[in-house]
Structure formats: C-alpha cells, structure tokens
Amino acid sequence: MKRFFLTLIACLLVGSVYSSTPRKIKVACIGDSITYGAAIEDRVNYSYPSQLQVMLGDDYEVGNFGRNGATLIKRSFRPYFDQDVFPKAMDFAGDIYVIHLGVNDTDPRSWPNYRDDFVGDYLALIDSCKQANPKARIIIALLSPLADRHYRFMSGTKQWHEDIQEAIKVVAETAGCELIDFHTPLYPYPWHLPDAVHPDEVGYGILAKTVYSRITGDYGGLAVSPLYTDNMVIQRRRPITIEGTANAGDKITVKLGRKALKTAAGLDGKWSVEFPSMEAATGLGLTISTKDKVLEYSNIAIGELWLCSGQSNMRFRLSEADGGPEAAAASADPDLRFFNQEFYWATSDVSWPESAVDSVKNLIYFRPAKWETASPKTSLRMSAVGYWFAKELRDSLKVPVGIIHNAVGGSPAEAWIDRNTLEWKFPVILRDWINNDFIQGWARERAAKNISYKKGDKFARHPYEPCYLFESAILPIGHPTLAGVLWYQGESNAHNFEAHEYLFPLLVDSWREWFNNQELPFYYVQLSSLNRPSWPWFRDSQRRLLESRPHLGMAVSSDLGDPSDVHYKDKKPVGERLARLALHNEYDFDLVPSGPLFKSATASGSKVFVTFEYGTGLKASDGTEVIGFELAGKDMLYHKATCRLEGDRAVLSTPEVKNPVYVRYAWEPYTRANLVNSAGLPASTFLCTLLL
C-alpha cells in the first residue's frame, strides 16, 4: 500500500510538471516547392519554415507541409488537396496556418482552364484549416516573384501571376484572414531566385523574416525613410504625409511644429499620418515617437522640393563648373538645402574590388545621406545644374528650396525605371542585359569592366543594369511629395533614339506612379553639342518627346557644348533655363519659358516658311545672320539655306533646291546654329517633312 501511494504521488508530481509546461504554438506552413524548400542543398535547415523555426524559438513548433509542384486549384494537374501532406497538415491542427499556393497555377495547364475555380478552392482550403482548429489564425501570402528569366515569362506567366495576386487579395477579404506579401521583399533581388522561381538560402530567409514579423509583430521598431534628417525640406501647399514602420500595434505620435497626430502601426508594421498643407516655414521640429523610441529632427523647412537625376552632366559638381567656385563662395543660405545621394564607387574605367561587386549586388551603392544647407563648403559638392536651378527659385519665390540629387555618370534611362514597368512594357531589355544591343555598347563594356573581378557570377549587378538605380536610389527614399523632377540624361541612350522614345515615357510614368502624382512636372535637358554622329537625331527625338506626355518641358543646351568634351563646363544657363520652365509653368511667372520650338513649315515655290512656338523676337544670338538651316528635295541631299526673318517666322531658300521637301535646323553633332528669341533662348534642333 505504501508503495502504491508513493507511485501515485510520483505520478501526480510528474503530471504537475507537464501541466505547468506551456504548450508550444504550432505553425503549419502549407504550400508548394517554395514552402518545401526546393532548389537548395540543405532544405532541412534552410527552407523558409526551418529558418522560421529558428527565428521563433522554442515556444513554437513549425511544421513544413510543402509539396513540390502542388497547385491550389483542385481540377489542376497536382492539387494540394490530393497530396499526402494535406491530411498531415490538417492533423497537425496548427494554431497558425501560413499558406503560400498559386505559383504552379500559372502553368498553362492550370490557370487558362480553371481560373474560375481559384477563389472557391482557396476558400475551401481555409475552411479545412478552420475545421482542423476553429481558433486557428489564418495567414495567406501573395505569391513570391517569378523572375523575367522564366521560360514562360512572356507567354503568359507574368500576366497570370498578376491575375492570381489579385485573386488572393479577394480571398483574404472574403475569408477575413490576414494577408502577407511574399512578393515585394524579394522583388528587387532577382538573383535570390537562381532558377527564376525558387529562392536561394538568403531568399528563403527573407520569406521567413516576413512570416516571423507578421506572427510576432516584430518589425524592428520605429523606422522612417533615410530622407528624414535634420534640415529636411517638405513640399508646401500639399497635404503632408509622414510615414514609416514600427512594431505591429505600436502607438505613434507625430509632432510637426505645434501640431501633433496619433496613429498606430498595422499588422504589416506600416503607419502614416497626414497633416494639412502648410505655407512656407522654417525652423520647425519633427518628432516621431513610440513608447520605446523617439526620433527627433530639427530645422525642418516647408518649401519647394525637387528631385534632380540623370547621368554625369547632372552630377557635374559646382566645384567643376565655370563660375562654380565663386558661386559656392557666395552661396550661404540656410533655406537652400541639398540631399546628396553620393555613390560609393564611380563607374570609371577600372575593375572594382570584390567587396564593391558584392555590395552593389546587394543594392548597397549609395552612401548614407543627410540634408545640408547651402554654404561655401557644402555647395561645392552640389550638382551645378541643380544648384543654379535652386538658386533661381530661391531668388524668385523667396521660400525654402530643397533638392534631392542622385545622378550617376554614364547611367542609361532604363536603369532608372522600376522593374514592373519594364517587365510589362519592355521585357526584352531585361534579357542578358550585358549583351543586349538595346543597351549602349559603351555602357555594357564599362559595366563588364567594373564587375570583371566576378566575371563568372552571372547574377553580378551594376548601376547600368535595367531597374538597378530605381531599386537602389529611388525606392529607398520612399514617396516624398515633390514639386517636380529635373532630368539630364540621354548620352547613354543616344545610340538608339527609337528605343529611347519608348523608354523615356516609361520613365516618366514609372516615377509619376511611384511619387503618387500623375501630373508630376518632368523637365529635362536636351543633349548639348558634341561631335557624336547620332546626336542630331537624338536631340530631335527629345524635342518630339515633349508631346508624349503632359507636363513635360525641355531646356535646350546645344549652344553650350564642347566639340570634344561631353562634360562642358558652362552649366549655369542650363539650371536657369530649367528654372524658367518651372517658374512659368508651376509658379505662374510671366516670362518666356523656352527657346523657339518648331511649330510648322510650308513651302511656296522654292521658299520655305517656318513658324515657332515661343518665337517672338527671332534673331541671331551674335547679331549676325541666322545660320543652321538646311533644305533638301526628294533626293534628301541637304544644302545650307539662307534665312530671312519676317517678324516671328523664318523664310528659307537656297538656289540648290528648287522644290523643297525637307527642312532641318542645327543638324550637326556640334552645331553653331544661332537662332534665339527675344529672351535670348536658343531654338531646338528639328527635322520635318514640308507641308506641300
């Protein structure tokens, strides 16, 4: 009997110990090969559920119920419902179910035939999870990316992938379950999808971190865009959005000047507040706080905020420009401010070290930046074009002016366009870009030289790669409200103006979408004069691009070039001409915004009559005769034409052409054409077929 009681007590004690041990929270990961952990050597340790287990720790039990090739749709070729892991996932009775299915439904055997079943079958799967555990937390994921290298990318996979993403959003709303994003965190890193579908170990880690943050609410605490620093400039007369991330549910207080707003971070860690628009102001404080962290910024200004970007002629520093050092010496102005995104490695003719290639591959190309006020020391580093533009606005508007500057020498337009836009609108430029003729040969050769240390790495990246500079320079600064964009680029696309005529509107559309303003002013500089044969064609193409989108403007610079140096030093007129466009179009100043722009040309006998927009007061810039016009007949053989000015039109003729068919102006790579208007602004290169 004594032994019986001792045994009973022992059992009770053991039971007491077990009952006091907390039950682990069970996380069931349902999916296809991406959940299973395919395409890596050690999936047991590096699949996303395995990495999630490490992140969550011993209080959780993570089950991997992925199956290679599984589809969501029941009538498809390998439905998840028919796989042996499905009943195992249900028997697991997870407290949390994380579902990532649909990638294999982009197969032409599935989506085209059974797309109408997708939402219903997904809801049925969710119902099964709820039956397994009525209290289960259901989290469904937007699909991870498919890289453009996928063999079916252009034959439907891209479109069907997009369709399925929208269907998953419908499922989440209908079922009232949580939606997480497996797409956005991986999208800028296509090399983490070696076979275009399955992540590598780092990519699986990104997915694991995404799930970890949603389950725990841990997003790393309060954080904002790197654009938030002391001396920051915020756009006036527009609603002011302050946004960032924090741990889920964190209560955030944002104080700007004397006004304060409160909000809370959502389940995705994101938060934002919106202050009413403000007039110009300086010396404001900005404080963003949670119970655990306070971010404080001083000397905030409300004024005009512009983004200056492009390639080397935009990056060309004030210290290098004619009159630049003198301008910098007199530049002290606390309300003229710059945010310079300087890069770590110039794209000069050298092979980068391994550390540089690795950093660039991981989108670490730009140094941390901060807002600075204009001074003799800081202004020297500023874009010369950007400085003189900002100075003109400061003098004219009498409000604070801020410039975000991130130009990169040699960069082609496609490097600044977001990935999704190119995937939809110009996917061929993404293919094997280092050997792609759409990308200028010089740019490809320079990129190959820079990354030659890792020549065997087929996923090595470079700033000239399509999408790269959008992902490394534009994406990180978030979505600030801008007054407009200044763009000086084209030298690295001049080999193929036809492709650029497609790319440039995509760039404008891409940035207008990103900065949430479909009417965002976009002012660009026409290429200058230089002895490169394709440049007259490119300059004329840039002129015609003015009609491609609304709210565009072009500053002519062909009178400022150097025959042998692409980096001419007289940058002040360029900045001032861009400022004229802005002051006239955006700030209602009564001034001539542009030089003469070709409007029409008609022939009467052997004479040609040309009219111009902004053509009041036509004259030769040097007070002599107007030169630069040429005429041709049907033979397309051009001859210099005599120009006689009659009021606001030019009358052209040459004895060599009796029946003119074509007229062109400033059609030399390095031109001395000299037609200007009453404001002294030069006429643009143009070519046209005459109206007979």
- Low-confidence region ranges: 1-19
The helicity comes to 25-40%
Main sheet attributes: strand count, strand direction, barrel closure: 11 strands, mixed
Q: What is the residue-mean pLDDT, rounded to a whole number?
A: 95
* Broad structural category: alpha/beta
Give the termini separation. 122 Å
Q: Which word captures the global form?
A: globular
Radius of gyration: 31 Å
Protein architecture, described:
The chain is α/β, with parallel strands linked by helices and 692 residues long. The protein contains 19 helices and 29 strands. The strands form six sheets. Strands 7, 9, 10, 12, 13, 14, 15, 16, 17, 18 and 19 form an eleven-stranded mixed sheet that branches. Strands 2-1-3-4-5 form a five-stranded parallel sheet, sandwiched between helices. A hairpin with a 5-residue loop joins strand 23 and strand 24 (638-640). The longest helix has 19 residues, at 2-20. The model is unreliable at 1-19 (pLDDT under 50).
